[in-house]
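Duplicate of earlier report; Alpha-ketoglutarate-dependent dioxygenase AlkB-like domain-containing protein input re-posted below.
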Amino acid sequence: MADISDDNFRPEFKLYKRKSPPPCLEDVLDTDSDGHRKMLYKLELSELAQEQNYQKNISDAASFGLKNPNEWQCYGAHGFPGFQFIRNPFLPGAQRYWVRRCLADYPCKPNVTNLDTQYQKDQLTNPWQQPCSSPNQQTQEKRLMDQLRWVTLGYHYDWNNKVYNEDQHSLFPEDLGPMSALIAEVLGYPRFQSQAAIVNFYHMDSTLGGHTDHSEFDLTAPLISYSLGQSAILLVGGKTKATKPLALHLRSGDVIILGGESRLAYHAVPKIMYAQEEGRLPQCLGATEDQQQWQESQEEVVVGSRVEVGDHPAVALRGAQKGMKDEHEESGDTTYHAYGGHSGKLSGSSDSSAAASVDQRPNVHSKQCPDHSSPNQLCESQGRYINRTNLEDTISRTTLSNSADSQHVDLDGAAKNISSAIRDLSQKDQWREFEEYLKHARINISVRQVTGPGKGFPQKESCHEESDRDMVQSSNTKRTKIGDS
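Output:
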């Protein structure tokens, strides 16, 4: 056991958790100021523009409400290889869609929540829309949402036995999965599969204790974490608590990637902070002048025309991609289907055996990200497994393809749904309830891959961790565990 005197993580956690007197934040890295330049360096993604699928990524990103990837502000941290930070890559208005998904949709059955052991199943069909028990009583909806601490998606972690089980799963969301895979691909993880996620709901007095995420069977795939709502301080350290962590100011829309050497890094959230003054939403969640312009442009993106999204060109190539797919089908060319259209079992087949041994260290040029792991030469030699033909490839590897519930997702339909939802949420009456919730709350979505590419679950193997779900705390409650009230 490590000597407690070697713990340089906990003192930093206690420092930033402190309420009285409040901690000085001058050492917290903040991309809104120049102080971050000492520790953070800009990741240049321009070379990725030369890649075969880059123009597709522009169109695909717009489908999920993301800016042109070449416009993303990406950072690495000196001394923390594999840590990547994207400063709010979302287009105006798009975060509202993901907020609604987290509050109104993801807590619904068959997904698993911390409320499952406290209420009957019929009370938890949709916690956000639970009807009032009486006109003069606080709504059941509000009571449930105040008690909601976490939701798991995809493969549901067994908190009692500390394992992932192959038969405990639901379909991974058809929007969150491919968006996460797209972000992973742009940042050098072309084979990332969105298989599990935990959505944490923080109130202003909540914290997330220091921990590592090591229960997944494939630890070469990164963790992808999204922040929504009020701000937070994130601590990221090393593989042991001997490493003094860096402290980073997270705002709504920011995305964190823990991969490579940082995949098993200790991390924590010691403090939630108001983004502006108390009771106000972050500015990026408010209505903007160009929000309506972007909503209107999305109608054109889906049908294949070139549009301007503010200063970000969105090039829709779906018509050309569909023609490419039809051409392959007519010619009998199976290269497209071997990866792009394949929805076989994760346990592998003859088509996927070559890819099964490929790990997911970042597949990027070392001069772009000097602290990353070495470029994955084997992945580069297996180019047909890496390069997506269109976003349906990504969807095929983000659904639970080893389950009987696998389904083909209509990408154009999904894009239209997102565009329609954002348009609806621009109306005050549609957004008001979500706005009220977020005035005093933060949401975090942490997406991860459980098994390796082309691999199934190991037999009789369990991985243990003190997880995000175990560690979310509130000052007026005990640790939020299954069974706690």
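The first helix runs from residue 10 to 17.

Merging into the original ticket.
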